[in-house]
């Protein structure tokens, strides 16, 4: 009897977990939050260093289209910092690429980003800052290991050429 009950519980859990991964549709009202670290770097200052931190939030406005905000920061060990903030939009390719895996989300997009740099070289006494608006771009993928929690990898412009982190779907 215990084996039958245990088998019934396991089968129920598997069925529940399998059914909880509905088709990963990106429709009006879908919400995604990415938060991660930047790997590699140019960060506007021209050399690698420091740890980049970034986040983006997007909301579905139409089938397979999201828009939202992005922000990032990177500090360069006493030499300065780089930051960016702006808006962006993404197109989600699962439907057009016929990707049937409901845990995967492939996307790419563009944004309008304000980036600022500050230098503070204490060795030579040089201090300056600069900022400006530019075009940003990104290509990314998310893998959801739970219906609302996953991991993402994103390549693009900003504080690092590659960002890795957690992704949340609301």
From TrEMBL:
Signal peptide start and end residues: 1-22
Domain of life: Bacteria
Keywords associated with the record: Signal
Protein name: Outer membrane protein beta-barrel domain-containing protein
